[in-house]
Structure formats: C-alpha cells, structure tokens
C-alpha cells in the first residue's frame, strides 16, 4: 500500500525505507502509544477505531493476553484489506466503517482511538458514539 509523500497520517510499516527517519520516528511514537494502551486495556473485547492498516490493533492483542478479541475499524477499505491480509489472526479482525456511525451491540471493554479527533467533522459525536459502546 503506497504511503502518500505529503502525509504521515497513514503509516504502512512495511513500506517505510531504512532511510526514512521521519516515518520511522513517527512509527515509533505510534507503537509506544499502542503499547501504553495495551498495558492499560481492560480484559475482554477491544476496539481500535480509525485503525489504519492494522499494526496497532495487532500490537494491542499481542501485548495484552487478557484481550479476548481486538477489532480494528477504519474508513478506508484499502487499509482494511491490507490489515486483513497482514495483521489479522485469531482474535484480531478488521472492518470498514465510519468512526462517527460505527455501532456494535455487544460493546467493548477497551476502546483505543489514536490521532482521530482532529480528522472527524464532529469530535463530540465521535466521543458520544464511543462512550455508548464502552461497557
């Protein structure tokens, strides 16, 4: 999946070159944040909203054995397809949906959403939507 030269909004770890210091540093920051979230995640189901290509969703599951399942949701169908191919495993799945309207009747014990608020048209609606799904 090509990474736009004009944006670091969607990082694809496999596409970063060894000499891309900015991209690798940004990826390192993202991984640190996901590790922080994994350490503090409640056992049970986790949602990673605006999951991008899925590396963070997979990291949550790999680093917190108390998570029974992790669902990554992203608006981009291309990102979801990539995530399903590269990062899905038992207990880690991905879906294409809009963060503002995504619903899950079963709810989640942990919800992670990194660097999302600044990209949605109605941040309060996102917060309200996620709060309704939190168990």
Keywords:
Rossmann fold; disordered N terminus; single chain; SAM-dependent_MTases_sf; alpha/beta; 4 helices; four-stranded parallel sheet
Give the domain tally: 1
From the alpha carbons, calculate the radius of gyration and give it in angstroms: 14 Å
Biggest sheet, spatial arrangement of strands: 3-2-1-4
CATH topology: Rossmann fold
Overall pLDDT level: 90
Principal-axis shape equals: globular
Number of helical segments?
A: 4
- CATH superfamily name? Vaccinia Virus protein VP39
- The level 1 CATH classification is Alpha Beta
Strand content: 15-25%
Tally of strands: 4
Helix proportion: 25-40%
**Biggest sheet layout:** 4 strands, parallel
Contiguous low-pLDDT stretches (5 residues minimum) are: 1-8
Question: What is the end-to-end distance?
Answer: 35 Å
CATH 2nd-level architecture: 3-Layer(aba) Sandwich
Derived structural class: alpha/beta
